[in-house]
Amino acid sequence: MVGFADLGLPFAVVIALWFVSTGLVAMLNHRLRQSLGRALVISGVCAIGGLSLVVLTSNSMAEWAVYASFVGGLLIWSWHEISFLTGAVSGSHREPCRAGARGWERFSAATMALIHHEIALAMTAGLLLSLAAFTVNPVGAYTFALLLIFRLSSKLNIYWGVPNMSDELLPRHMEYLKTYFGPKRLRPFLPLSIALICAAAVTFGMAASAATTTGLMVQNALLCCLCLLAALEHLFLALPFRDSALWQWALDGNAARDEV
To answer: Are 190 and 238 in contact (CB under 8 A)?
Structure first.
């Protein structure tokens, strides 16, 4: 039986990586927008490095291998995030939503604004999960798959409408996406999403506590903390808190450059 004190290091690692990686992605997309090629090269290096980590650690559940595979999944995710936020891979529709659009017309337009990115994410998740089915260490694949689920949940909630939307991390060239945001009010889907994510966190937490090996404990603890952070990000959509303030260090100076 693993004590809760043993979960401290995995939790600290996830929180640190979440904070730093989100800030770095924001920095790349805001500060290197006029050097699109450089940003894409950096994201490509992330993808190659991440896939290498996932493959190299695929047959080991040693503690270091679990952490490395988790980082690999995050790096592959960062590649997709940078590609999307730079506008390199987004969708076939890059115009604001037509005023007065409702129902299927609005949903279809919103889908086409993101479709290429969504397909790329789904294909990558499918590839990683297929590889994980034949390997010992699935942490990188599980990490990417969970991030995909959480992102899809966030997008649906924002589309239907949430009380609070902190959109400062969205680059200026993608502000047309704001026209697809729903009204600022609480919908039942948001509390349901938070409850389901918290339930997943509890499941992973219990699995970590009952783990018989260090590798399994670290794996489930990492995924548990990832779920808790996703629940927190969903909670930010309901509370009057500008979560982008957490990454102001990555955005500082951007306004001045935009004015030049």
So the answer is: yes
Q: For residue 32, what are its two tokens?
A: 């290197």
First-to-last C-alpha distance (Å) of the chain: 59
Six token digits for residue 183: 């009204």
Closest of 141, 145, 144, 165 to residue 155, by C-alpha: 165
Of 94-103, 192-201, 224-233, which gets the smallest average pLDDT?
94-103
User: Would you say 43 and 32 are in contact if contact means Cβ atoms under 8 Å apart?
Assistant: no
- Secondary structure of residue 64 in the 3-state scheme: helix
User: DSSP class of residue 244?
Assistant: G
Residue type, 168: E
Question: What's the token pair of residue 48?
Answer: 């190659």
Q: What is the pTM of this model?
A: 0.89
- What is the percent of the chain with per-residue pLDDT over 70, rounded to a whole number? 85
Give pLDDT tens digits for 146-180: 999 999 999 999 999 999 877 766 777 888 888 99
Look at the alpha carbons of 66, 67, 70, 71 in this order and tell me if their dihedral is positive or negative: negative
